[in-house]
Write a structure and sequence with these properties.
Elements lengths: L1 H29 L3 H8 L7 H17 L3 H11 L16 H12 L3 H14 L3 H22 L4 E5 L9 E6 L4 E13 L4 E13 L2 E6 L11 E6 L5 E6 L15 E8 L2 E2 L3 E2 L27 E6 L5 E6 L15 E6 L10 E2 L10 E6 L5 E5 L9 E8 L2 E6 L10 E6 L4 E6 L9 E7 L6 E13 L5 E3 L3 E6 L5 E6 L9 E3 L4 E8 L9 E6 L14 E13 L7 E4 L12 H16 L3 E8 L6 H21 L7 E7 L8 H6 L11 H4 L5 H11 L1 E9 L5
Parallel strand pairs: 22-29, 31-32
Antiparallel strand pairs: 1-21, 2-3, 3-4, 4-5, 6-7, 7-8, 8-9, 8-10, 11-12, 12-13, 13-14, 15-16, 16-17, 17-18, 19-20, 20-21, 22-23, 22-26, 24-25, 24-27, 27-28, 30-33, 31-33
Helix pairs in contact: 1-2, 1-3, 2-3, 3-4, 4-5, 5-6, 6-7
Protein name: Outer membrane protein OmpA-like peptidoglycan-associated protein
Organism: Thermonema lapsum
InterPro entries: 6-blade_b-propeller_TolB-like, Bact_OuterMem_StrucFunc, OMP_bac, OmpA-like, OmpA-like_sf, TPR-like_helical_dom_sf, WD40
Length: about 700
């Protein structure tokens, strides 16, 4: 019995100790001191039930909020399907474990499982911002397969001589062989992540990836506070950087207080930094950005990663502010903003960079290159996991955003792209193969100067029914012919009327003959000319060094009906004659081509005259012209048995169809060009035109020799 009581007492003491550790961890967690919170939480292993859920929740959240999402994954996995007993931090949400579990899966490269979790959250999630982000992530994961196949011309190396187990990031090239680097090397420890506070350091290079660290300027270096991500004006006289809070995520008023500060170089020394007024808010402001009806008084923001434009007239930066100064709303997390320098040297109103760049995720670390391209990091654009590096270009008013791909990007945080020459530079990453935390990497861009485009052609065949309806035509034979009518290639469309993609040269030209051999319906062979002229992509519009593009070419086969389907040709003859002139021969050659393309049809050639002259003379003239046309066609190798010449004289005036009505506004569809109609027009010019329309040759399909099956 005594043993039992002792065991019970020990168990109670152990339980009370675990609860005490959990309460301490909660207190540290709510202050944003995540590393000490993690240490406390790891002491509370022997608990179960709701307290175990809380322990794993705080561990997952602490790792995530200190930018260690990969370490948060196993804890989110334990709790994503459980209810959180209580929330003590107003920044937390009951859906955090579900949403961030999916995000952690993506970060770990488990894309299919991540997609399933995001899809589940879209159906069941309760936080609108997370639902929108999940929808974006689903689309991004679907694009990853294509992104992974893209060829990269970047080569990278870890700058081991510049890195340590702590963080080194945000490189800024200075004078020759000098860098300004943000590094966690101060004496005091930042409780949020257990690393030293960050400061601004100058590195004198002994090689591209080797050098000695020294404090950049004593006036810009304060112990017990984070200082990082500096940008320098083109003249080297103005430096803007981010300065953060000391040990808590918010100050005593509950306001987030990472701000942008400015310092000028005077007599060779940097002045004491001051708040960048007009861009960063001070702690006394009630609203951040333009005050709108739904503005929240507590909407203070983090401002960080500033970047001058190459001319120094714009300042880009990242911010979590709710609105810009024009009322444009933040899309979620950290977005990119900019301000324009005014003539007096101050900065104008802050403007949101728009939804072509910003997403419901986080955008930060902007940099504008000498050629005007915007490089930035984002975890909301289509990427491999956490932050990826992207480049945005503008052409003809359109902004295109492109992921730089591997090896620049990885499932981890990749950011801070900067050039020191046209093709070389630095970026930062916390990928596991580094020395630890954020490391500096060197890159070389070996992209070919001349960009390559590989063109492919997909042909689609459509059947045009008698009523004008278009339907896909499967199993259609396609013959590609050169200019001498020699066969280049033969292929067939699939069950949906499409061919496989065909690689073609950028100067390709050929004839496409399409005939539908396996349909119960009857379609005429289609002949179309394909040329690459006007289809090539201009070099200046190409974003990638190599581009594959598929062109679609549609071929329409027309259905026909025996004794009803007709085609009209304007064959010109000398007055009262029927000899074939050169211009008439050119038109008849088109009929020859039609008959060669459709060797199984028989036709009647109907020759029509106008109403001038006697009725009998017009009958004879029309018959002679029809016969002359047939004789010419036979001379080109067409079997006479397929041809019937018929002279119709003036007995069938032309009926205006939709095409003619569109060409001549004074005519309407259905008008009959008889004498009464023609002579209702007072002017000779119009009457002559209508007589010309009556003078025509029509081809009527009269039969099929071998009916197509």
């Amino acid at each position: 019995m005594m043993k039992y009581l002792v065991s019970l007492c020990l168990l109670a003491v152990f339980f009370m100790t675990a609860c005490s550790s959990l309460k301490k961890a909660e207190s540290l967690y709510v202050k944003g001191q995540y590393e000490p919170a993690i240490e406390q939480l790891k002491k509370t292993k022997a608990i179960d039930g709701k307290k175990a859920v809380l322990r794993n929740f705080y561990l997952a959240q602490s790792y995530r909020k200190s930018n260690r999402l990969h370490e948060a994954l196993p804890y989110y996995e334990k709790i994503y399907s459980k209810d959180i007993p209580k929330l003590i931090d107003p920044d937390d949400h009951p859906d955090d474990p579900i949403f961030y579990y999916a995000l952690a899966l993506k970060n770990a490269g488990k894309y299919e499982e991540a997609k399933r979790q995001f899809e589940s959250y879209v159906r069941k999630g309760k936080k609108v911002e997370y639902v929108k982000r999940a929808q974006t992530e689903i689309a991004n994961i679907e694009r990853l397969q294509r992104l992974m196949k893209e060829k990269s011309y970047y080569e990278i190396e870890n700058c081991s001589g510049l890195n340590s187990p702590a963080a080194e990031f945000s490189v800024l090239p200075l004078a020759s062989r000098e860098l300004l680097v943000s590094a966690a090397r101060k004496k005091n420890i930042y409780a949020a992540n257990g690393q030293p506070f960050t400061g601004l350091y100058k590195v004198v290079l002994t090689d591209t990836c080797q050098g000695e660290y020294q404090v950049f300027s004593p006036n810009l270096f304060t112990e017990g506070i984070n200082e990082a991500t500096a940008t320098l004006s083109p003249d080297g006289k103005t430096l803007i950087f981010a300065r953060g809070n000391p040990q808590q995520k918010k100050n005593a008023k509950g306001q987030k207080n990472v701000k942008l500060f400015i310092s000028e170089k005077v007599n060779g020394e940097w002045t004491t930094p001051r708040l960048l007024e007009g861009v960063s808010s001070n702690d006394e402001e009630r609203y951040y950005g333009k005050q709108l009806p739904d503005s929240k008084p507590q909407a203070y923001a983090w401002d960080s990663s500033p970047a001058f434009s190459p001319d120094g007239e714009r300042l880009y930066f990242a911010s979590t502010r709710e609105y810009d100064d024009f009322g444009n709303r933040n899309l979620g997390g950290s977005d990119l903003f900019y301000a324009v320098r005014l003539p007096d040297g101050s900065w104008g109103k802050v403007r949101h960079l728009g939804d072509e760049i910003n997403t419901p995720g986080n955008e930060m670390f902007p940099m504008v290159s000498a050629d005007g391209k915007l490089y930035f990091a984002s975890d909301g654009q289509p990427g491999f996991g956490q932050l990826d590096v992207f480049v945005a270009t503008r052409s003809k008013g359109k902004i295109t955003v492109r992921n730089l791909g591997t090896p620049i990007n990885s499932p981890y945080d990749d950011f801070g792209m900067v050039f020191d020459t046209d093709t070389t530079g630095y970026f930062s990453s916390n990928r596991p193969e580094g020395k630890g935390s954020d490391d500096i990497y060197r890159f070389i861009d070996r992209t070919p100067k001349t960009k390559i485009v590989r063109y492919y052609l997909a042909i689609r065949t459509l059947g045009v029914e008698l009523n004008g309806t278009e339907i896909p035509l499967p199993n259609t034979r396609l013959r590609l012919l050169d200019k001498n009518e020699q066969l280049i290639r033969q292929m067939y469309t699939n069950s949906k009327g499409w061919t496989d993609t065909l690689p073609i040269p950028e100067n390709a030209e050929f004839i496409v003959l399409a005939d539908q051999l396996e349909s119960k319906k009857q379609y005429l062979t289609a002949r179309e000319f394909f040329t690459m002229a006007g289809r090539k992509i201009p070099q200046e519009l190409l974003e990638k060094p190599e581009t594959d593009t598929v062109l679609v070419f549609e071929v329409r086969l027309k259905a026909f009906e025996i004794n009803k389907t007709r085609f009209v040709y304007n064959i010109l003859y000398d007055y009262n004659k029927w000899n074939i002139r050169p211009d008439a021969a050119a038109v008849l050659d088109r009929i020859v081509t039609f008959l060669r393309d459709n060797p199984d049809v028989t036709v009647e050639l109907r020759s029509h005259t106008d109403s001038r002259g006697t009725y009998a003379d017009n009958e004879i003239l029309a018959q002679n012209r029809a016969q002359a046309a047939v004789d010419y066609i036979v001379s080109k190798g067409i079997d006479r048995e397929r041809l019937k010449p018929s002279g119709y004289g003036e007995r069938e005036p032309r009926v205006i169809d939709a095409d003619l009505a569109a060409r001549y506004p004074f005519l309407k569809e259905g008008d009959v060009l008889n004498d009464e109609f023609i002579y209702s027009f007072p002017d000779e010019e119009t009457r002559e035109l209508l007589h010309q329309l009556n003078r025509r040759t029509e081809i009527i399909i009269t039969g099929v020799i071998n009916v197509r099956q």
